[in-house]
Amino acid sequence: MTKNGCFMLLAALALVSLITGCGRPPQQAYYVSPFNGNNTEYHALPRQGDSIHAALYGSMVFFKGTANNYSVDDFWGMHSSLYAAHQYTHVQFYYGASLTLGSYDMGHWPYSPSVPSIYTFNNAYYANPDQLNLYAGSHSFGGVGFQGGINGVIPIGIGEWRLLGVETSITHEFGDYLSVRQQMPDSIATLINRNSLFATIGVNSELVAHVRDGEFGFKWTYGVALGHNYSNPGVFDNQTDATLHYYYFNFSFHYTYQRVTGFVQVMEATKASGGMVGIDYRLAPGARR
């Protein structure tokens, strides 16, 4: 190939790269509650037909996951709770308090000539990723909260179907990560939620099989984050080509032996995903029939 041919080929490749780069939308950055996607976990319940219809449980849970666009951030934490659970023929319900301590790692945003900037508040204008990277690093967080739920249950074969349930949670956040969000200017990110309260409501269904000295089961949950800053923050998400709404989906498997229930849970939410493992222990059997 001649010199002129090589030059023309390189020029054509550069032009294609420029055109495709200009066609790519700027990056988007979201900073919301660290409890997005991990605010609810599995709760053991007295099973239908037990002589025990009320019990007190303590739980310990470890969770880990990623957050933000393209999983730029990471988080992990420990969650403990104390809750009461009841069952009366075709109804089961629980309620209790929780404490969470963890760490949120704000990752570094890459700079690329083809994607040179980040959509800022309400996609109004662009910011350089270097401005966000000034906040990068690990930041502690914690929360105290309430969780509760109720479901209808019917017997099936060797087990029971907790056919439809409703759950809710609210957590008051504290710690360094909340302080960082409260200090960040709107002009450097697509969405920054500085509210210390994070609340959810969801629906679920669970199949449980009874075995000697215990049970095992699978549970599916779908829910949404409450408040207009999560339900309708006014942001169009480039990654999904849709208006941004915050939701969560959980899938859990549990096994109970006598007083101990172990579970694993997969979590998927808007701009967050991860998993948790935990143990529920029945502290007091409660009243008998």
Q: What does this molecule look like?
A:
Strand 3 (54-67) and strand 4 form a beta hairpin. With 289 residues, the chain is mainly β. The chain has helices at 3-23, 129-133, 176-183, 228-231, and strands at residues 27-28, 30-31, 54-67, 73-88, 91-106, 118-119, 126-127, 137-156, 159-174, 191-192, 197-211, 214-225, 236-237, 242-243, 247-257, 260-269, 272-284. A 10-stranded antiparallel beta barrel has the order 3-4-5-8-9-11-12-15-16-17. The protein has one domain (3-284): OPCA outer membrane adhesin/invasin (Lipocalin), CATH 2.40.128. Helix content is 13%, strand content 54%. The termini are far apart. The radius of gyration is 24 Å and the shape is elongated.
Structural class: mainly beta
Q: Indicate the CATH class.
A: Mainly Beta
| Count, helices | 4
How many beta-strand segments?
17
Largest sheet: 10 strands, antiparallel, barrel
Strand order of the largest sheet: 3-4-5-8-9-11-12-15-16-17
Task: List the helices and strands in order.
Answer: HEEEEEEEHEEHEEEHEEEEE
Q: What percent of residues adopt helix (DSSP H or I)?
A: 10-25%
As residue ranges, the low-confidence spans are 9-23
C-alpha-based Rg, rounded: 24 Å
* First-to-last CA distance: 91 Å
The number of domains: 1
> What is the correct CATH architecture?
Beta Barrel
Whole-number average pLDDT?
88
The CATH topology corresponds to Lipocalin
Q: Strand content of the residues, in percent?
A: over 45%
Question: Which key terms come to mind for this protein?
Answer:
289 residues, mainly beta, Lipocalin, 3-stranded mixed beta sheet, 17 strands
